[in-house]
């Protein structure tokens, strides 16, 4: 379903969460690939798409309108403040049908947990690593998703709106960058403190909440298992075949020893024979 054949009244309201990404080589501000892919996915669905960002400045967002996002709302707050309360306050005042995010921001110290914390706070379902999706034509509040799995596998799942989806790098490429669209894009700035009670507007991420532990060397067993790369995909195997495959793999990485047979050993007769 494309934007041209979707009735305006039935179009979804999609919100793309944007982060302050940086280029992995130069370190300069740059859009995050999965977030621009999320914009392309929403545009293919024929949805009303807007962006949302919480941070101290709009400079990291200046190129994003060129990838097909005409409106971005920036919630201005200090970089040390947790963005979740401000995002929640805005979303609850302007509830979308669907929230799209990347897998993880590229600022350097990002944990990738924000989409899950946001979904938990909203009480919405969440699905991760989405490569494609389409709206159910019979039930408008159902999305059919294609979830990326390891080794190129895909899994079809369905989810009910409203929901949160994280986009996988295997999703379609972003829309081509257009300089004219970047110039026309609107970045609206709102002070995050105006959306929050005074007690919630200064939730600073404290370093005392982070536990530091000494580095522990990776076990040799795990390193050896990951280095082989000779796994196999078994679809609906029988119990015997699955057990044999597991035993063979464990013997291959040294967890189990192969049974030893002594041809010179003479079996003993049971007592009383």
UniProtKB/TrEMBL annotation:
It comes from the Bacteria. Keywords: Electron transport, Transport. Residues 14-199 form the Electron transfer flavoprotein alpha/beta-subunit N-terminal domain. InterPro entries: ETF_a/b_N, Rossmann-like_a/b/a_fold. SMART domains: ETF. Signal peptide: none annotated. It holds the Pfam family ETF. Coiled coil: none annotated. This is Electron transfer flavoprotein beta-subunit. It comes from Granulibacter bethesdensis. The lineage of its organism: Bacteria, Pseudomonadati, Pseudomonadota, Alphaproteobacteria, Acetobacterales.
């Amino acid at each position: 379903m494309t934007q041209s054949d979707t009735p305006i009244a039935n179009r979804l309201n999609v919100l793309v969460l944007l982060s302050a990404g940086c280029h992995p080589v130069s370190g300069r501000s740059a859009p995050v690939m999965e977030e621009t892919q999320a914009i392309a996915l929403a545009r293919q669905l024929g949805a009303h798409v807007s962006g949302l960002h919480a941070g101290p400045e709009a400079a990291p967002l200046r190129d994003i309108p060129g990838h097909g996002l005409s409106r971005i709302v920036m919630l201005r707050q200090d970089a040390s403040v947790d963005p979740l309360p401000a995002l929640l306050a805005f979303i609850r005042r302007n509830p979308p049908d669907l929230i799209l995010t990347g897998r993880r921001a590229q600022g350097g110290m990002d944990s990738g947990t924000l989409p899950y914390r946001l979904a938990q706070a909203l009480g919405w379902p969440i699905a991760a690593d989405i490569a494609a999706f389409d709206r159910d034509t019979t039930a408008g509040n159902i999305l059919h998703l294609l979830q990326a799995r390891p080794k190129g596998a895909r899994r079809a799942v369905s989810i009910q709106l409203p929901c949160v989806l994280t986009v996988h790098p295997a999703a379609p490429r972003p829309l081509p960058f257009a300089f004219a669209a970047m110039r026309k894009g609107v970045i609206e700035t709102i002070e995050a403190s105006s959306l929050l009670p005074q007690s919630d507007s200064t939730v600073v991420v404290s370093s005392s909440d982070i536990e530091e532990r000494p580095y522990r060397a990776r076990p040799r067993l795990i390193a050896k298992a990951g280095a082989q790369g000779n796994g196999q995909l078994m679809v609906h195997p029988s119990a015997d075949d699955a057990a044999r495959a597991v035993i063979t793999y464990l013997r291959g990485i040294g967890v189990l020893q192969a049974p030893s047979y002594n041809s010179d050993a003479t079996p003993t007769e049971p007592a009383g024979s």
